[in-house]
Structures are given as C-alpha cells and as structure tokens.
Design brief:
This protein is mostly helical. The chain has two domains: about 1-50, no CATH class; about 70-200. The chain contains eight helices and four strands; from the N terminus they run ββααββαααααα. A hairpin with a 2-residue loop joins strand 3 and strand 4. Helix 5 packs antiparallel against helix 7 (about 140-160).
Length: about 210
C-alpha cells in the first residue's frame, strides 16, 4: 500500500493473505505490521491531562439522589407538575385580564391550588436530597434553587388566598402580579436546577 511521508510516496508491502490463514492470525499479522491502532484511543497510564468532563467544567463524580426509586431521582420527576400549574395560572390570569370571563379567574384559582400541592411534594423530595448530600449543600446555586422554589410556593399560597373564584376583580392587577412573579422565579430556579443536574451531576445515578 502507498503511504505519504514528508511529501514523498513510499510503498509498504502488506502481509500476504493465505487461503488457510484464520481471521485471528491475519489480524495479528496486520497488528505487527502497522501497530495496534486501538491503543491510540487509550489514555496513557499516569497521564494527568484533563478529561473531557473536566475541560467542560463538569463534575466527574455523580451525586445520586437520596429520594429515589431504583436509582431514579424523584424530585426532577415531580417538579414539572408545579411549574406547569403556576404557568397555567399566569396564562389564566392574563386571559381574564383580556376577556373579563370569570371562567379564567376560576381556572387560575384551581391551578394555583394544584401548583401549591404538587410544589410541596416536589419541595419535600428536593429537601430530602438537599439535607442528605453534603455536596449539594456546598453549592450556592442549590441554596438559591431551594429558596426560590420555596418563595414560589409561598406566592402560590398568597394567590389562593386572593380567592379569584369568588372575587375575580382581584385578578387585575394583584393576582396577575403574583402569578407573573411566580413564573419569573420558576424560570430562574428551573435554570439552576438544570445546572445542578446536567453540569454538576446532582441526582445522577452512578454507573
């Protein structure tokens, strides 16, 4: 076969293939002739160079959840429920402000109740992981994530106390302001939750 070395072509004779040669024997001969190319992918022993995860600023060791079933973390499985409910309450408040239809005021109230109920469940699961893992508590973003979500649930409770279903006039501007603030907080805490999971490997099952 032809190879290029420094711009000059030279020919290297490939090992002859015998009709009686087995596949394993032929592979051994090619390895002797050209070198074991698979070893090029191995990290040399004692190499202290950064791994791909380290170069990207990612944690190498996973931090499994305390609240988990068969290694599957429960907190990220539940958090979409309160997030969806509080966003739905905001949309319903905006729809009432636009149309004046009491249906939207009642809908926002029901969604706020659902958001608080599922938010308390998600918060309890998250608190279990937070208390049970030192590496979670050592991160400032985890504290902001926890505090922000607690604040969003608190705003949800305040939203319920407005009783939109009985007095829809409180939707504008009070109810709409509360639901807008809740969504803004959840946008920040949701982003931080993603950072904790995907960048710092919080809640990831060890391989």
């Amino acid at each position: 076969m032809d190879e290029v070395d420094g711009g000059l072509a030279r020919t290297t004779a490939a090992p002859a293939i015998d009709a009686d040669t087995t596949f394993e024997e032929q592979a051994r001969r090619e390895t002797e002739a050209y070198g074991d190319t698979e070893r090029l992918w191995e990290r040399p022993a004692g190499d202290r160079g950064a791994s791909a995860l380290e170069l990207q600023g990612l944690e190498v060791e996973a931090v499994p959840s305390v609240a988990a079933i068969e290694g599957h973390p429960l907190h990220p499985a539940i958090v979409p429920l309160p997030i969806g409910a509080f966003i739905g309450a905001f949309v319903a408040d905006a729809a009432y402000a636009r149309t004046g239809d009491r249906f939207w005021a009642r809908g926002a109230h029901v969604l706020s109740v659902a958001g608080v109920a599922t938010g308390l469940l998600a918060g309890a699961l998250g608190a279990t992981d937070f208390v049970g893992r030192d590496r979670i508590r050592s991160r400032g973003s985890a504290w902001i994530h926890a505090g922000g979500n607690l604040g969003a649930v608190g705003l949800g409770i305040a939203s319920i106390r407005l009783a939109r279903d009985r007095n829809p006039r409180v939707v504008v501007p009070t109810g709409l302001s509360v639901s807008t603030t809740s969504v803004a907080i959840l946008a920040v805490t949701g982003w931080l939750g993603g950072e904790l999971a995907f960048r710092h490997r919080i809640g990831v099952t060890r391989a």
